[in-house]
Amino acid sequence: MENQATATASSDTKSASQLPQLHEPRNAGMELDMDWVAAAQANTSAIERRAKTLPGRRSVKKEYQAAWLLKAITMIDLTTLSGDDTWGRVRRLCAKAAHPVRQDILDALDMPPITTGAVCVYHDMVETAVKALDGTGIPVAAVSTGFPAGLSPLPLRLQEIRESVHAGAKEIDIVISRRHALTGNWQAIYDEMRAMRESCGDAHVKAILATGELGTLRNVAKASLVCMMAGADFIKTSTGKEPVNATLPVSLVMIRAIRAYHARTGFRVGYKPAGGISKAKDALTYLALIKDELGDRWLQPDLFRFGASSLLGDIERQLEHQVTGRYSADYRHAIG
Amino acid sequence: MTVNVKEVFDSMTYGPAPESSAEAMAWIKEKDGKFGHFINGEFTSPAKGFATRNPATGEELAIISQAGKAEVNKAVSAARAAFPKWSKTKGHERAKVLYAIARLLQKHARLFAVLETLDNGKPIRESRDIDIPLVARHFYFHAGMAQLMESELPEAEAIGVCGQVIPWNFPLLMLAWKIAPAIATGNTVVLKPAEYTSLTALLFAEICVEADVPKGVINIVTGDGKTGEAIVTHEDVDKVAFTGSTSVGRRIREATAGQGKSLTLELGGKSPYIVFEDADIDSAIEGLVDAIWFNQGQVCCAGSRLLVQEGIAEEFYARLRKRMASLRIGDPLDKCIDVGAIVDPVQLETITNLVKTHGGDGEVYHAPCDMPVEGCFYPPTLITDLHSASPLMQEEIFGPVLCATTFRTPSEAVQLANNTRYGLAATLWTENINLALDIAPKLVAGVVWVNATNLFDAAAGFGGRRESGMGREGGWEGLAAYTKPKTTAKKLAPVAPIAAPKSPVVDGLDRTAKFYIGGKQARPDGGYSKPVYGPKGHLLGHVGIGNRKDIRNAVEAAHKAAGWAKTTGHLRAQILYYIAENLSARAEEFAARLGEMQPKSKKHSGKAEVEATISRLFTYAAWADKYDGQAHGVPIRGVALAMKEPVGVIGALCPDEAPLLGAISVMAPAIAMGNTAILCASQAFPLAATDFYQVLETSDVPAGVVSIVTGDHADLGKTLADHMDVDAVWSFSSTPDLTATLEAASASNLKRTWLNQGQARDWFGKDGEGREFLGHATEVKNIWVPYGE
């Protein structure tokens, strides 16, 4: 494993996921528009119905499925966020990020090399990851701001962001203060988010709403809008540590907010569901949801990511099945 | 074809995802592509017929036999022969048969789904995820009804042989809606599937054999409209159930008039889809996909009239157009398709022509979807800025065409929504529960969906008001369509008035009975009266001879009193008690008068009749606040509220054999339930009713709630049945041969009829009151309210 990681670090493969280069202007944000926030609606049962029927409405088969799954890999933020993470563990993950699919499978599918969208770690592991990914073009994302609860003092949270950026993180996943959302203090959410975005500098910021702790889908819709108004580059469902993480209904609410924000401001904000997406089939459903609700432009790693750790393994098995016609086994694929 | 994975990786397009038709085609091939009828448990040899085609490709699937009179006769005879035993079969035994059918449907679910899609053109997702599961659900639900019938409906029995004709838009689902309740309650059936779509009905027939359905209980004959006509007009068919167009439904009403058949019709619609400004707009737009692009819009309850609050209209239309552009139209067997094929080139032409001819009334937007080159396809279409007079806003298009206009206020939304001859379904979107629960009862529709659309379940009745038909399918309310009260039929002899004596006895002061219209005594419009004599030759008074205009005036007055429907049951109860109290105060006078006007041979004394009348008023005062609706247990997180609503304006020909009790037995349930009533007094003994208006006048009955007219039952009845603004006609008249005329005339606006069919009723006994009357005085509206925050 260590060897492989070393090999990765020295690799200068330009990953396919970075091509073609897309230049999307960063979301500049806007003044907090409380009229808009107050008018946000989310009818839970209707949203659940749409989400429930979606897998039955869209189906992607054979080579198309393989292509979509490969695309899904390029959108994965390969993640490790455990108390027992070590440098070795992170290097192994980085190696997997740079070579997520066995070469013979890629060859059989006539595909150039691909990488995952990013590697996502705690601040302490940023430096290790940046080094391990040197030359791969894969950005390192750091979870920040007192992750996952977001309860440390604001100046410390902002300082944490700056240090992660300084350590080489190109993306910062922040958590919003659920207490402000639950008490309707949207101004406070907006102000914090603004400050965090500023602290990020050129690094892109993903706002984690922790939707499992917001109580209602209506709150999810409002929090989505407020974070985008405050300049979030991405909005993200969960830390992965809440009792309920990414779900299709929550996703529907968030991407509809993204669509509305784009229609009003012209800025495209990215979306990242995180936690609980572990099957290739689920990934396909998410991609179909994005395609139908937001359009093809969002089906690129600069606007869509999966926050997932075990999804890649299932996709690898599905890809081997596509190539060989036989069901695969997990030990046939390198662990990350 | 080899697909370049890298290219798809870059383009992220959907590829083909075809469902295999191999098994379904093999099933057809097994039959050599030719099908006979299913009569008396066996398939007949395939006979001369017609081709059934796959509308997506035009390819011929099979040859279906055309049933003529001979085949229909055979099928009806088989059903007749099977009826006595099946109707007496224990409920539990019938339940086992329905359960077996449900299980077999599930076991062959995919075959049914693929066959349905091949024959009809609907997307496989819909046949697989909606139609077939609902079919199985219907048989499960009604297996339960068979099981419970003896204990829960002890007074009900099967009607007999049911002739059922169903449409092509939900071929197997409509079969289930017809057959399941019919056989659950002990009827036997002859069913004809639509000409375009017979295949799943024939596969269902095979399943009947496996489910051990006794021979003759279910018969399926195939053919075109002529076959349907032979079934519905067959003299040995007791009950006709039809789902299809309003024009055919009207013809069936006319053709079966006077044949003594029970009739349920589920007809067309132009259902409103109302979006208030506080709605979850994206969800409301997604709802439209399920409302008007579900089954290519070929849905009787399709939300085809979009009414959007003006302030959000432009934004709504813009987002809707965007959503429409992402709909996928094409091969119905593709699992990634939203909109499939139109059922037949004829239907495609109808849709195309309607939009071509009238599209100019508004602004037409065809979704820029990739269209298949061949086959019957029509793009999802939105027509905005339509005025309510446009034929596109009034006529059922039965295709993927949404017609839109705007409204300013909730009351204007209701006004626009109800501005139609139809009354099948309605959808409304708002996040405000006050608004939703205020508007839903005001919409003239059998089904209302709040923040949802096109939800169906066997536990909730489905059916329309106005020209969308009569009767309900599903739920407890649906059983009324396939059962009748257990009674022993007794012929009703005509009751003649007392003939004019040679030399009438005239004593006392002249008494002039007038009409009672709009809370006032009114002279007959025609200016004619006739004398009424007692059995001893006394001239008891004169009554007016009512004409068309008197009925017209009474109907107008009844509509002015529409607020009665919104009063509370408690208030109506108090008024009914008060009527009883005031009648009681004059009991002796009324008793004497009843004695004076009727022959001495009468079984019940005047006193007994007044007593019974007072009791009857108490009965309905009691019921006024107790005939509750239900909260149906539908399989969603939410409720389907089955609300009992008044029918509207009821015109009734009152019984002659009990002139006071009969009139009140008709009036009291009607007004207790919130209807307004126009009573045509007993023709033979009209004074009993005209005396009564003085009681009404002193009892706080609001003007127009009850009108009383005297005259010739045949004349008045015909005028009432013809009247487009009367919702129901009841007749308990002893005038012979009224049924055919009244039923035929009722086709004008497809009003409900409840006629005695020449049979007597014991007005003094239990048949003279109760749930049967309340059932006819109400319509069930199912309001679906999903919830969750």
From TrEMBL, chain A:
<dbReference type="InterPro" id="IPR011343">
    <property type="entry name" value="DeoC"/>
</dbReference>
<dbReference type="GO" id="GO:0005737">
    <property type="term" value="C:cytoplasm"/>
</dbReference>
<dbReference type="InterPro" id="IPR002915">
    <property type="entry name" value="DeoC/FbaB/LacD_aldolase"/>
</dbReference>
<protein>
    <recommendedName>
        <fullName>Deoxyribose-phosphate aldolase</fullName>
        <ecNumber>4.1.2.4</ecNumber>
    </recommendedName>
</protein>
<dbReference type="InterPro" id="IPR013785">
    <property type="entry name" value="Aldolase_TIM"/>
</dbReference>
<comment type="similarity">
    <text>Belongs to the DeoC/FbaB aldolase family. DeoC type 2 subfamily.</text>
</comment>
<dbReference type="GO" id="GO:0009264">
    <property type="term" value="P:deoxyribonucleotide catabolic process"/>
</dbReference>
<keyword id="KW-0456">Lyase</keyword>
<feature type="compositionally biased region" description="Low complexity">
    <location>
        <begin position="1"/>
        <end position="17"/>
    </location>
</feature>
<comment type="pathway">
    <text>Carbohydrate degradation; 2-deoxy-D-ribose 1-phosphate degradation; D-glyceraldehyde 3-phosphate and acetaldehyde from 2-deoxy-alpha-D-ribose 1-phosphate: step 2/2.</text>
</comment>
<dbReference type="GO" id="GO:0004139">
    <property type="term" value="F:deoxyribose-phosphate aldolase activity"/>
</dbReference>
<dbReference type="GO" id="GO:0016052">
    <property type="term" value="P:carbohydrate catabolic process"/>
</dbReference>
<keyword id="KW-0704">Schiff base</keyword>
<feature type="region of interest" description="Disordered">
    <location>
        <begin position="1"/>
        <end position="20"/>
    </location>
</feature>
<dbReference type="Pfam" id="PF01791">
    <property type="entry name" value="DeoC"/>
</dbReference>
UniProtKB/TrEMBL annotation, chain B:
<feature type="active site">
    <location>
        <position position="266"/>
    </location>
</feature>
<protein>
    <submittedName>
        <fullName>Aldehyde dehydrogenase family protein</fullName>
    </submittedName>
</protein>
<keyword id="KW-0560">Oxidoreductase</keyword>
<dbReference type="InterPro" id="IPR029510">
    <property type="entry name" value="Ald_DH_CS_GLU"/>
</dbReference>
<comment type="similarity">
    <text>Belongs to the aldehyde dehydrogenase family.</text>
</comment>
<dbReference type="GO" id="GO:0004030">
    <property type="term" value="F:aldehyde dehydrogenase [NAD(P)+] activity"/>
</dbReference>
<dbReference type="InterPro" id="IPR011408">
    <property type="entry name" value="Aldehyde_DH"/>
</dbReference>
<dbReference type="InterPro" id="IPR016161">
    <property type="entry name" value="Ald_DH/histidinol_DH"/>
</dbReference>
<feature type="domain" description="Aldehyde dehydrogenase">
    <location>
        <begin position="48"/>
        <end position="487"/>
    </location>
</feature>
<feature type="domain" description="Aldehyde dehydrogenase">
    <location>
        <begin position="536"/>
        <end position="758"/>
    </location>
</feature>
<dbReference type="InterPro" id="IPR016163">
    <property type="entry name" value="Ald_DH_C"/>
</dbReference>
<dbReference type="InterPro" id="IPR015590">
    <property type="entry name" value="Aldehyde_DH_dom"/>
</dbReference>
<dbReference type="InterPro" id="IPR016162">
    <property type="entry name" value="Ald_DH_N"/>
</dbReference>
<dbReference type="Pfam" id="PF00171">
    <property type="entry name" value="Aldedh"/>
</dbReference>
